Amino acid sequence: MRPPILYPLFAPLTSLPGVGPRIAPLIARAVDGDKVVDLLWHLPQGCIDRTARPAVMETTDGLTATLTVRVLRHEAAPPKSRSPYRVVCADDSGEIALVFFHAREDYLRSALPEGATRLVSGRVEWFRGAPQISHPDYIAPPDKADEIPAVEAVYGLTGGLTQRVLGKAARNALARLPELAEWNDPHLLRREGWPAWGAALADVHACATPEALSPQHPARRRLAFDELLAAQLALSVVRAKARARPGLALPGTGALAARIRTALPFTLTAAQESALAEIHADMAQPTRMLRLLQGDVGSGKTVVALLAMARAVESGAQAAFMAPTDLLARQHFATIAPLAEAAGMSAVLLTGRDKGAERAAALAALAEGRAQIAVGTHALFQDDVAFRRLGLAVIDEQHRFGVRQRLMLSDKGRDTDLLVMTATPIPRTLMLAAYGDMDSSRIAERPPGRLPIDTRLVALSRLAEVVEGVRRAVAAGRQVYWVCPLVEGDEETPLTSVEERAAALAQVLGKDAVGLAHGRMKGPERDAAMQDFLAGRTRVLVATTVIEVGVDVADASVIVVEHAERFGLAQLHQLRGRVGRGSAASSCLLLYGNLTETAQERLTTLRATDDGFAIAEADLRLRGAGELLGTRQSGLPEFRLADLAAHADLLAIARADAERILAMDPELAGARGAALRCLLYLFSRDSVVATLRSG
Ligand code: ADP
Ligand code: MG
Question: Which one, of 437, 117, 481, 468, lies nearest residue 292 by Cα?
């Protein structure tokens, strides 16, 4: 249960004064969350310093300054003209115009009466050799000079929201910060010179010093550290809980695996063999395995998992394979079941959509141990699913599941070995942050004989040629993925929506040839569209990134990504991995609109290499360059206060600290433990605290 002291932080935004039902959704959109705490985590992007007070003629173009001027005259725009309303002011050095579009004259006349002296603060622009300020941020009479803040935070906004409204909401949120007990080690605080939590937050939001926003400022570092510590502590608790339980020793005999190997049309690569050897060594131990298997798309993780599952069965246990979607579960079942059966094992499929007698039969087979292997979605881990003796659970595409699901799994098979697989390689520097609770194996080699994917960058202006190319590919019997970045046309960013693109392609290729799949479709409807494509009934699948992970269509050998500059590097790499699975030469066309420098670097990196590990490192480097790259899809944890490029040193400290804390106080029951529990709640790690004995 969240401690009451945190209630004000987890109250809805509307609990803040001045934030009503109209403003709250706008703030929620800007800060990515509808709680007061989300607003606090929304740190300013910059500071406006208004302390400069030059004379008018000393100003330079672009300078933000506060000027003391006399109002000379108002110049209303001639009626129906597009010209702005101007108020000409001056000091002893010269004249400056204040410029207003869509002005309300009565308001301006009262704020800037002719002959009066006023302080005006804003960004000075030099236009045709003369200084002007359009829409000053502040106008105040000399006796109210303190209404103009010396330094002011600048926040990321959303349409309809202003700096003033968001700034005021943030100040009100800061005004109700609870006094929280210090959770950090006093030695660390002293060594780093960090302020207390509340002071750090207040400093950063208030732009207390011009450097307050630098990632290396003590206040910023402290906030980043708190977030990293919460994450590391959560991982360490999960890891400690998992390892505290005895595991099953699953040494195997090799008998079933040998039959599977005989049935396979290929031999394993050296990389697959060495990953398998690491997995086997863990399984043989009487402790629980918690291992991450990383391998690029197409590197052959499934067969490694299958052989590990066979080893569990050889040892008298059962094995489960969990995929993130129904479609993927079915696809894996289609691969796994025949091989399992060839070896004399029985496999069942269990997804949310399997109901009735069939489901009952599958459940009975698992409970009685007649079925040794279960393939499914998270439906596998619902309450009514009972295994006779679950020895190994494999989770495919781990990044779609969180720590919570991992915990749920541990509860299912209390001593179950766990193998999680991901096709999104994690840069070594980030392994700790993302998977600090696991050991890891890598398959850094693809099976032989794969043709490289021809990757090209094409300007969107050449769309017609691309469409013609797609038409030819389809005529030649190939299938094509066409990926678009957004579901619906959005007025702010006029990108072609999937629906429009599908309609346009249907005009060229015929209505029946074009399928559509996107995230706003209902699950069954979307799966049906995928199935049509899989079965070859549709030849082009226009989709959003829902096709990103795992889907395997052998005849699909062309992928077009529209507005590729909008996608993250890791994500583009995943998308490209959808093709190049069959024997035909494949191509990937990255259509770009406006290229920023980073976007260009991203796309050329992608063209230069198809090594997922190299791409992951480049992704991190470019992310460090400050561009947001769809963290959610990339499998990396999302931090709101920490910047992994800037705070890598803190990650290591947090990691060591978390280990030390749990070694001394495994249930977080002591005084610092109580403060640390509060930290975990603060970062919404409630489910982790729930696994601790109540302190
Ligand atoms: P991923 O790692 O992306 O899950 P898969 O396990 O789906 O990759 O394997 C991709 C394809 O490669 C599958 O068709 C699989 O049968 C094939 N494959 C796996 N291992 C090998 C190998 N050693 N030699 C040849 N083909 C292989
Ligand atoms: Mg796979």
Answer: 437
**Residue 360 C-alpha to ligand 1 middle, in angstroms?**
32
Asked whether residue 19 carries a pLDDT value surpassing 90, the answer given is yes
For residues 18, 24, 26, 28, the Cα torsion angle rounded to the nearest 10 degrees is 130
Q: What confidence category does residue 489 fall into, taking pLDDT thresholds of 50, 70 and 90?
A: very low
| Strand ranges inside 107-249, DSSP E | 117-127, 130-134, 138-140, 151-154
Ligand 1 center to 347 CA (angstroms)? 20
For the ranges 23-32, 275-284, 523-532, the lowest mean pLDDT is seen at 523-532
Alpha-carbon distances, residue 113 vs 37, 48, 72, 202 (angstroms): 43, 27, 9, 37
User: Smallest Cα–Cα separation from 519: which of 546, 551, 550, 495?
Assistant: 546
To the nearest 10°, the Cα dihedral for 190, 192, 197, 200?
130
Spatial distance between the Cα atoms of 579 and 559, rounded to a whole number of angstroms: 7
Across 484-511, average pLDDT: 74
Instruction: Identify the residue whose C-alpha is closest to ligand 1 atom 15.
Output: 300
Distance of CA 220 to the CA centre of its chain: 21
In this structure, the number of other CB atoms found within 10 A of the CB of residue 126 comes to 13
Residue 629 pLDDT grade (very low, low, confident, very high; cuts 50, 70, 90): very low
With H, G, I as helix, E, B as strand and everything else as coil, classify residue 251. Answer: coil
Q: What is the pLDDT of residues 170-180, one digit of tens each?
A: 999 999 999 99
443 Cα–ligand 1 center, Å = 11
Measured by CA distance, the residue closest to atom 18 of ligand 1 is 300
Dump strand ranges (E) for 169-305. Answer: 290-295
**Above 60 in pLDDT, residue 494?**
no
CA–CA distances in Å: residue 324 to residues 405, 484, 552, 637: 11, 22, 14, 18
pLDDT at 405: 56
* Residue 581: per-residue pLDDT: 73
Bridge partner residues of 448 (DSSP): none
